[in-house]
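Anyone up for a design puzzle?
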């Protein structure tokens, strides 16, 4: 079996002695259970009890040592979804002396990353909750390299996209149910437990209605590097690269990502013809039911536009080239502004995708399925009043995840896309033609602080004064080619709580309007590259007229 862990690679006797003598060692990062990742030597797992075990000895270490706060509510989140009460990690404790009475441990020699996948059957969850966080947790800890072992503890089977998880390391990932095969007690020589949440951009609405995370820490750069790494492992060269290699005419095309089971586009043929006509490009369709995922990625990575109903398959827009357009279609009574996982992705700085939402506003163009089971949007199980209220409603009110029947009813409708209104939305939003040529990434380099800021003042008359502020360019500017360099100056009269902002093109300026004699002004100066790359303010200047 592939699950065999070559015990030959470690000296069993030495490992057992080390465990008995030193016990378990744990050192974690993070102040709270929601931002914690722990590194362990000799963390053990008892398959029978389905519990992790920490063995205490004279030289074991547990940092942080939280005492009983370790259970309030948990040591850490095992998935990347924040503070979800089905995703907590903890361990039980035993003295190392208890090993004498326990089954002989089996040691795992590989450096192991232990985590929960959140929803491995849904492509959005696979990428957002698992693949990206695993990829970047592995980059955070350099011994989690290509030889690392992944262990998925959520208890699911492989799921529909297991091949994607396999790309993250050269070793076969292990599922919780497989851990039993290694014996009653297994001990991970070196392991990390938990996932970085740094790359997630969306919260699914468990405590407040779904939306972008409050503090997004990832940019398009990291998403694109992850996508490139995955494509390399899939042996996909993008059509754009092929064009460069062959110096051929580039072939622009539109991709319609269709769903064939539910949430259908009922006039797909008409939609495809209209798109081809409007943009003078060929249009191809893909679906998870008809193509392998790698072949879909290959098609998407060369597309100028991706059109799809709202749904998990749209996470594949992270494989689109820069400058491409994402068009998300929403069924009747679903407000696009309240469901923005793909809009947020497309809008991350550095993703450089154009995003357009279209919403079916015509109820007759919608086909609903009230008789289906509730999880496919059926509402027949509800009280008559409630059914009638839902049928009469023109928009799903804001709601929490995950079983709101009105939401499920509406989101699982099929749609006849009204072509004129879609084209109008596209013409309005897609300012420039979708374009692969401008695939050059925009600069993300921020200015340093301006140097040697100075002020000089003079009093002209009892009610007239001047304030001259000057500064030197930031240190890094002399090594850069920047299209537009501007400076921002804030002037605040001491004691007031408002300030006047100015945007200036040069390295000095004399202010005379609104400057009073015998007054102290606080002055801040910073540099701005290309309108939106802000530098830090220099130390505040105190300027007395
Ligand atoms: N799915 C699909 N075709 C369909 C319906 C679903 O490929 O006709 C995929 C979808 O992309 C996702 C998974 O099945 O990966 C679960 O779909 P669901 O509708 O439950 O979730 P959603 O797409 O709304 O996130």
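Challenge accepted. My sequence:
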């Amino acid at each position: 079996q592939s699950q065999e862990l070559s015990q030959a690679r470690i000296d069993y006797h030495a490992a057992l002695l080390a465990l008995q003598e030193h016990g378990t060692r744990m050192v974690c990062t993070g102040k709270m259970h929601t931002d914690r990742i722990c590194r362990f030597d000799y963390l053990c797992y008892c398959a029978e009890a389905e519990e992790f075990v920490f063995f205490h000895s004279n030289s074991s270490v547990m940092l942080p040592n939280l005492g009983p706060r370790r259970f309030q509510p948990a040591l850490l989140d095992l998935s990347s979804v924040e503070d979800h009460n089905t995703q907590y990690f903890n361990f039980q404790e035993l003295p190392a002396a208890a090993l004498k009475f326990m089954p002989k441990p089996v040691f795992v020699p590989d450096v192991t990353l232990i985590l929960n996948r959140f929803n491995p059957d849904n492509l959005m969850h696979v990428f957002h909750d698992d693949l990206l966080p695993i990829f970047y947790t592995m980059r955070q800890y350099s011994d989690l390299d290509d030889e690392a072992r992944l262990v998925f503890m959520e208890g699911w089977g492989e799921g529909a996209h297991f091949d994607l998880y396999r790309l993250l390391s050269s070793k076969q990932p292990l599922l919780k149910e497989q851990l039993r095969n290694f014996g009653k007690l297994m001990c991970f020589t070196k392991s990390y437990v938990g996932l970085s949440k740094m790359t997630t951009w969306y919260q699914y609405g468990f405590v407040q209605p779904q939306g972008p995370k409050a503090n997004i820490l990832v940019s398009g750069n990291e998403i694109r590097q992850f996508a490139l790494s995955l494509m390399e492992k899939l042996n996909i060269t993008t059509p754009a690269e092929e064009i460069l290699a062959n110096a051929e005419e580039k072939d622009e095309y539109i991709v319609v990502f269709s769903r064939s089971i539910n949430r259908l586009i009922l006039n797909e043929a008409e939609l495809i013809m209209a798109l081809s006509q409007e943009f003078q490009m060929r249009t191809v369709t893909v679906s998870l039911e008809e193509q392998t995922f790698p072949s879909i990625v290959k098609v998407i990575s060369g597309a100028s536009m991706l059109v799809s109903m709202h749904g998990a398959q749209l996470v594949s827009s992270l494989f689109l080239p820069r400058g491409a357009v994402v068009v998300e279609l929403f069924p009747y009574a679903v407000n696009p502004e309240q469901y923005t996982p793909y809009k947020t992705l497309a809008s991350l700085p550095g993703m450089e995708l154009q995003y357009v939402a279209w919403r079916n506003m015509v109820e007759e163009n919608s086909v609903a399925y009230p008789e289906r089971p509730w999880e496919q949007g059926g509402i027949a199980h509800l009280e008559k009043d409630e059914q009638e209220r839902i049928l009469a409603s023109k928009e799903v009110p804001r709601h929490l995840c995950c079983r709101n029947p009105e939401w499920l009813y509406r989101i699982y409708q099929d749609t006849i896309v009204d072509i004129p209104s879609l084209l109008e939305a596209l013409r309005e939003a897609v300012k420039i033609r979708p374009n692969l040529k401008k695939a050059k990434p925009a600069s993300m380099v921020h200015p340093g602080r301006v140097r040697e800021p100075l002020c000089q003042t003079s009093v002209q008359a009892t009610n007239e004064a001047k304030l001259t502020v000057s500064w030197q360019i930031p240190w890094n500017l002399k090594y850069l080619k920047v299209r537009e360099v501007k400076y921002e100056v804030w002037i605040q009269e001491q004691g007031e709580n408002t300030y006047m902002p100015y945007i200036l093109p040069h390295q000095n300026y004399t202010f005379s309007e609104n400057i009073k004699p015998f007054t102290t002004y606080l002055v801040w100066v910073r540099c701005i590259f290309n309108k939106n790359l802000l530098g830090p303010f220099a130390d505040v200047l105190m300027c007395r007229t």
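A detail worth pointing out: The pocket of uridine-5'-diphosphate is lined by residues 122-124, 259-262, 288, 311-313 (CB under 6 Å).
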